[in-house]
Design goal:
By secondary structure, the protein is of the alpha+beta class. The protein has one domain: Ribosomal Protein L24e, Chain: T, CATH 2.30.170. It has two helices and four strands. A two-stranded antiparallel ribbon has the order 1-2. The longest helix is centred in the C-terminal third of the chain and has 9 residues.
Length: about 50
Amino acid sequence: MRVLDPVCGIELDDDLAVTAEYEGKVYHFCCDGCKKIFLKNPKKYRSR
C-alpha cells in the first residue's frame, strides 16, 4: 500500500515507512527526521 509522508509529501510503500501514532491514528514518514519534525508539532501536519 502507498502512503504519504505528511511532513515532506513523499509517497512511499508502507512497509518502508517509519511510523508514529497520534490521537489514535498512525502516520507514516520517509525517515526519522520527518517523524521528529511531526512529533514536535503534530497539529500542523495531522490534517494532511
